[in-house]
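Hi everyone,

Forwarding the result from last night's run.
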Amino acid sequence: MTLSKPLPRRASLHEQTYQMLRTSILSGELAADERLVETQLAQQLEVSRTPIREALRQLQREGLATMDTGGGLRVISVSVADAVHLYDCRMALEQAAVRKACLHASDRALEDLQKSVAQAECIGQRAVSTLNTLERLNLDCQFHRQIAESTGNPWLTDLLVRVFDKMMLLRVQTTRHNPQVLEICSEHRQICAALASRDPDTAIAAIQAHLDASKIRVVKALEALQPVP
């Protein structure tokens, strides 16, 4: 494990260190189940162990790092059971989001959703690479976040963002081995059309179909990564 560069001196070292490690985990630069060793991280980021220790505690509180049996910290590894639980949470939150979005989303917000889908389609036409996979993952999160933000309910958006963080770990873990997990543009198009109809029942059916299909793809990809007994 090698992080890309030392930290520039801005803001507090603790906050910078936390943000750097968090981004590295969510992007997959720090891989699932990888050990987080204070001395190594301090050397790579060119900081003392104190901000590293504080940052690791914060990551642990967020559930992005976990204690192993030997007492060390590791990047969390998302299991099949974790995936099912996360999708159950998303289903409840996103059904509420599309219902409200049908009532409150502006025409501009709906146009922005269409643009997000178009961007993802353009990226999907390129050759598969780590970079464009991360771009598509980010656009996927952006699409769902835009729906939540269009409801005018900041608490709903905040809850979904927290779930998306955990989902990002899951998606990085699966797309690295199976990029087809991200073949979702047609489903996003259907959600856009449902929202444009301003019919909550149609929108709820569209988001449910999308998340059910996505859960099946992701769980299948995770199961394929499990070691053969």
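The mean pLDDT is 87.

Cheers,
N.
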